[in-house]
Amino acid sequence: MATIRDVAKLAGVSVATVSNILNGKASMKGETYGRVRRAMQALQYHPSYLARNLKSHKTRLAGVLLPSLDPPYGEIYQGILQALDESGCYAVLKLSQGDVRIEAEMLRSLADIGVMGLAAVPSGARSLRHYRAYAEGGLPLVLVESRLPGLDSHQVLFDNKTLVYARTRSLAARLPASSLLFIRSSVQNTAEQEAQEGFCSAAGAGRVLTVSRVRNEAFKQLFSALEEHGAQYRAAVVSDMPLALALYELLGLRGLSMEIHALAGDGWNLQPAYRSILPIARQAARAGEEAAALLLRAAESKCPMDKQTVRIRARADWAQEAIPVLPGRRSLRVLALDCESTDALERLSACAREQAGVGAVFDRVDYNTLKEAAEREALAAHSEYDLLMLDLPWLPHFVNRGLLYETGRALAAELTQKYPESIQKTFFRNLERRDIVPVVSGIQAIYYRRDCFSDPEMRAQFAAQYGFPLAVPRNWTEFRLISEFFTRGNNPLSPFDYGTAMTLSRPNARVNEFLPRQWAFHGHIVDKWGKVALDQDGSVRALQNLRQTAASACPQRAGGIDDEVIELLLRGEVPMVHSFTSHFIPDKYHGDTFENFIEVAPVPLYRSILGGWSLGVHRATAQPEACCNYLKWMLTDRAAVANMRMCGGIPTLAVYQDAGLRRQHKWLGFVDRVYANGGVREAVYDTFGRLVDPGLVDDILADAVAAALGSDADCYDILACARRRLERLIAGEAPADG
Predict the structure, then answer these.
(1) Which end of the chain, C or N, has fewer beta carbons within 10 A?
(2) Which residues contact 331 (CB under 8 A, 6 or more apart)?
(3) Cα–Cα distance, 375 to 388 (Å, whole number)
């Protein structure tokens, strides 16, 4: 294996020169850099991660200590890995098998390699002294699933007591309490104890069976229990999945029948062997993400942190969802946008017809046609449509003018409680009634090539040229500089012709590029007194930034859309783009792509445009009951998650909490912060207090962006012209060109 000395010798320079180039402390231009670069390529030299960290006396290694990789621990580990990967850290995994002696040995080995912190599932109370020694020694520690009473540490816990209580209570409502059995391991930890408390509180007369933590011994004990009382029990609640599998095997061996309900993680349904076991699902991957986030904060904090406890809420129990099936087979007609989200709704319509007695037929049109047609249909006394698909900015107009069927307070509450609070606040803001159901949510995010941003040569070259590390842009100035750096016209060593791609050919797309920049630079369309403020500093800086970034952007085809910039990224033509998350659908692009190298990050300051679509029931529909039944079915957890897996985007709690979706769509991990900090287009009112058509405001902004991109005119003058146009519009004059 080549060393840094070999590179220096071949290049004819000193070791110090090679080191300075690798660490961005030397010029990236000139003949010396070229010789070093060619020598590295010839020798296939890569800098040693461990050597660099030993030299700096700190590592980016995080210890992970789990009993096994059985559910839910495999999912917990996946969650930890995802969070660490996004932070440029590495996990070192050790398995204790639930044995205190092995656990102590693994703790010692992790401490010996100098991990920056430890996330662990403790085996039980007997391991307290081992963890206490390392915690008191200053090692950041996060306990997952189980607490250690007497140890002050960060904790991420499941609500096992509530979960088991709810499932046992549902069993006790239809089965005699004496026919219920709780099976747990003899491991003395708080997770097992809380699960037992939940069972006993709900079952009362049910029996608790404690078996050995040693699997073979547990198998024998279960066999004996079934031999003696097997016919008595009709349902068992089990504290972990391996015990549930052992019970399932023994039931088959003895020819007995019993319902098995087991505490599990997120991925229980991915393995065919688990299909006969009814899971009590827990958000295990989410627990892993939270544990890693706590660990990173504790490890990077320069002073001791107050210890925190994160409780992972119970996910809704899919098995208890039931939608009454309407008699006969109803069919609804929907006026909808032609997009992938409508594809998902359309494909699931057959399932709705079978399970809720009502399906839907979708008439799909483009954006501009839908905007005009929805208005026309909503005003009509009679319409062929039962449901209308509406863009987020249109909602106040349709709802507050009473153009939709009023679903009623009870049904509205039933439907909206399916959504996170952030979604409710966004979609129902300024609405007098809750007559719509969100079916698509979209935020803007930054997608980038992980391999390019982590490449040592690119990082060193960038640091030398700009004076700060190459990383996901934290603001729009960094976004511009990174785009400039990766554009071959500015940097001959770049592997890309252009550093980014932008949606600039259509008016509403230009506005989508401008507004998040305007908000990040603290610009506004109107100030708090309603006066037009378009030509103030924040908006001017935003327009300047957009113009400068566009100089590094790949030219788009006429009519280019968000899908095109995503395709350019996946095809490897640009290293970074800014786009709506609803357009990132890698599966639609056939052939070789860089899908597995793509990472996602929030836009600067989390100030994204919040987009989305809703369904509203037409006020003249002849089938209001069928419409409401269809909407209720569509918002069930199973339907919403299936919709998302087919590239839809119904933004319910179940979708945001689903571990598989969170791994596939990483933006779900920061969506709450985006909805808390993002925004929608500002409402502009005329001198009579009426809402100015948002489309006309968009036209003015889009023309300003086009003028900035198509001329050398001063951005202040361009926005001053836009301000005058908007002032005339507010005064009630006909919208005129600038």
Answers:
(1) N
(2) 353, 358, 359, 360, 361
(3) 10
pLDDT digits (tens, 9 = 90+) for 177-199: 889 999 999 888 899 999 999 99
Residue 642 main-chain phi, psi, to 5 deg: -60, -40
**Which residue in 501, 542, 534 sits closest to 518, CA to CA?**
542
Q: CA-CA distance, 714 to 651, in Å (whole number)?
A: 42
Strand pairing of 141-144 and 118-120?
parallel
* Residue ranges for the chain with pLDDT beneath 70: 1, 23-30, 46-59, 267-275, 314-322, 557-561, 734-738
DSSP symbol at 274: G
Closest by CA to 124, choosing from 159, 151, 164, is 151
User: According to the model, what pLDDT value does residue 559 have?
Assistant: 47
- Are 193 and 201 in contact by the 8 Å Cβ rule? The answer is no
Q: What are 630's two structure tokens?
A: 């269809």
Q: What are the helix (H) ranges across 265-402? A: 284-300, 340-356, 367-379, 395-400
Are the beta carbons of 21 and 44 closer than 8 angstroms? no
Q: Tell me the residue type at 87.
A: S
Q: Which of 94, 424, 143, 113 is nearest to 291 (CA)?
A: 143
* Gap between the Cα atoms of 280 and 209, Å rounded: 19
With CA atoms as reference, report the closest residue to 140 among 113, 126, 119. 119
Q: Are strands 436-442 and 611-617 parallel, antiparallel or unpaired?
A: antiparallel
Unique residue bearing structure tokens 């904790």: 155
CA pair distance 359, 354, nearest whole angstrom: 8
Answer for the pair 291, 156: CB distance below 8 angstroms, yes or no: yes
For 7, phi then psi, to 5°, come to -65, -45
